[in-house]
Write a structure and sequence with these properties.
Rossmann fold, 2 domains, two-stranded antiparallel ribbon, 9 helices, 8 strands, 14% strand
């Protein structure tokens, strides 16, 4: 059986290399490939939850998750790699990140985020990210104006609901065993498919499940919207205090990765 994963850093496994007390520089050296800005060493770290899950079940793992990934990138990568080959022998896990993450195709990258100068660039459509939006601002491109004119959270949820329904039918009809889950914030869809994981939880996102496991009360944090930075919300501060995530990037430690692997294993088997 093959296991294919899509999502952002919480699916990629970023953070598994962190050990208690690491400085930011030590953390970067532990999980960054020299010359790269993303924490890609953790993509292949055997301590990530996806590796632990695959090893436990004897599955062959391929990950297409990427730090900072958006739902748009998820669907684009799924289009590129899922062609129906060996569908009956393939499990597909899709982690849903922030609604506010998107990607734009640029003929010439004015943001400096795409070294090739042309192609897809990840962007954040969020007021909650404040000064980060300045990264995308130049004389040719102003993210603040773009967000003001184009971002609407209710519309984002509606479009995501349609996309999940479409992809779920398509992949299921091809024979894939596909499962969906929220990574950072619970998205309040009008409807979710039966193969959406952790729907029995009051808040089914991996981040909140970790916080609840550490003693958190979900009602104490209202920062769950798509425009809320997961690094600034109360859950993040609580998880840092409990040492369930690393303090430099709010990503699961190796111990938390192991917990997520167990939760995923039980949830998938309950749905299969």
């Amino acid at each position: 059986m093959k296991l294919l994963t899509f999502g952002s850093s919480w699916t990629q496994g970023t953070g598994a290399s962190y050990t208690d007390g690491m400085s930011l520089e030590e953390y970067k050296n532990a999980c960054c490939i020299p010359g790269e800005t993303a924490y890609d060493k953790d993509r292949n770290n055997a301590l990530t939850w996806k590796h632990l899950l695959a090893e436990k079940n004897g599955w062959e793992l391929t990950t297409h998750a990427r730090l900072g990934s958006s739902n748009m990138r998820n669907f684009r990568k799924m289009t590129e790699v899922l062609d129906g080959t060996d569908a009956a022998e393939t499990i597909v896990l899709v982690g849903i990140p922030h609604l506010a993450r998107h990607e734009l195709f640029m003929n010439e990258d004015k943001t400096g985020f795409n070294a090739s100068g042309k192609g897809y660039v990840g962007v954040l459509y969020a007021n909650g990210y404040g000064d980060n939006a300045n990264k995308y601002k130049s004389k040719d491109f102003d993210m603040f104006k773009y967000v003001k004119n184009h971002y609407n959270e209710e519309n984002e949820i509606e479009q995501l609901t349609y996309n999940i329904a479409h992809w779920n039918r398509y992949l299921t009809n091809l024979g894939y065993k596909v499962f969906w889950y929220d990574e950072l914030n619970q998205i309040n869809y009008s409807t979710v498919p039966d193969n959406y994981l952790f729907t029995d939880k009051d808040d089914r996102s991996l981040m909140t499940m970790l916080a609840v496991d550490a003693g958190w009360t979900p009602e104490a944090d209202t920062d769950h919207s798509g425009q809320s930075s997961h690094q600034d919300c109360k859950r993040a501060k609580y998880l840092v205090e409990k040492k369930a995530v690393n303090p430099h990037a709010i990503l699961p430690t190796a111990a938390s990765q192991a917990k997520i692997a167990d939760w995923m294993d039980a949830a998938i088997k309950a749905k299969m």
